Amino acid sequence: xxxxxxxxxxxxxxxxxxxxxxxxxNDVKFDFWKSPSEVGKEVHVMLPxxxxxxxxxxxxxxxxxxxxxxxDVKKVIEEQQQKRIKLRKQxxxxxxxxxxxxxxxxxxxxxxxxxxxxxxxAVTYPDRVSVQPIGTTHEGRQIPLIKITNKRSVGQKRxxxxxxxxxxxxxxxxxxxxxxxxxxxxxxxxxxxxxGFVDSLEWYIVPLxxxxxxxxxxxxxxxxxxxxxxxxxxxxxxQQSSGLFQPPTTTCCQGVDLNRNFDWFFGQVGSSTDxxxxxxxxxxxxxxxxxxxxxxxxxxxxxxxxxxxxSYSQILMYPFGHQVRTYSNDLNDLRSTALLASQxxxxxxxxxxxxxxxxxxxxxxxxxxxxxxxGKAHVKYSFLxxxxxxxxxxxxxxxxxxxxxxxxxxxxxxxxxxxxxTLSLP
Length: 426
Ligand code: ARG
Ligand code: ZN
Fold this sequence. Notes:
Its cofactor is Zn(2+). The active site is at 386 (proton donor/acceptor). The N and C termini lie far apart (59 Å). An eight-stranded mixed β-sheet has the order 5-6-8-7-11-14-12-13, sandwiched between helices. The chain has a four-stranded antiparallel β-sheet with strand order 2-3-1-4, with helices on both faces. Strand 2 and strand 3 form a beta hairpin. The model is unreliable at 93-99 (pLDDT under 50). The protein is an alpha/beta fold. Helix content is 38%, strand content 19%. Helix 10 runs antiparallel to helix 13. Zinc ion binds next to loops. Residues 259, 310, 317, 321-322, 358-359, 362, 364-365, 368, 371, 384 line the site of arginine (ARG).
């Protein structure tokens, strides 16, 4: 078994960035948790020990500052699993109850558990909850959407789209979105603001947009599997020349990066045509069942606000992310809303978020859903959240379960600000 570690790199000059970017685009043995963008921004990369042994001298030769962020990824995954098993036992003994429907929001769940929870809500609260599939994945799973609105209040209402789990390994995202669902449904009778949100808006929420990838990431403690990002589309192959006088080799890989597969500058900066890349864009825009399901649903409904949840880095992004310094005409509306939302978020546990476009705060990436929603589907408010942890914290995608509720609580405050803004649209 190979040992996997995560390195933290601090490039300080442009040629160091260029070197790392070349690795990022051309060497699929490296799994960039945080990819290179510009001088001063950290890079996090997971790699197996044999690759690390060859890579470290290259870093030293280029004077790239590096340190170990996680020495043994597998060990951390296993420790977290042990903790989860312990916690499950305690919880069972206490026999917790959340409202009328049992579901522990403080832990990571299987897709089957999520389905059961959503269906239980629909049965228990039929006057404001319904569940419907919006598409079927490559592996045959139905992607559930939960619609929350007061079915008795009539008239045209604005729609808010929320999705989580587009990237498989970002487990805190679906968990956070499930918390929103819980709040909207169970606080209806207790909280006048939430009553307003459910009476006067239509919430269309997909907590787990990429169930195939998510279930795959849950299926093993092997870092290559737990840290899976893409969906599970069937393998595509490419021929690679392996050097002079050698026959080309064929390599085949599964999965499309769903957040490169939307129709917004598809196939340009920050995406790859290599099926083995973590940022493989797919054969054409909306080639995937998950992304075409989003497109079809959003186009057929009156969506004013589009919220999509990722981890990690603590950034609240508005369009456009495909290249730096590129904004919509109503930038001021989006920016002021994002700033208000991030202030509300901070007010809970003093968690600091950066605010800006994906390209300006993280790295340019084409084919992203938040850009498509604004640029092509013409929603008013389109935001992408990169949830906890911040980049200084060591655990990245392996966020511990005790972080779920704090993350969800603070993020809900931001979402309420955006929902309130949506309500006050003319
Ligand atoms: N972590 C996200 C991703 O890689 C960020 C995308 C930001 N959006 C953008 N269009 N740049 O998909
Ligand atoms: Zn993501």
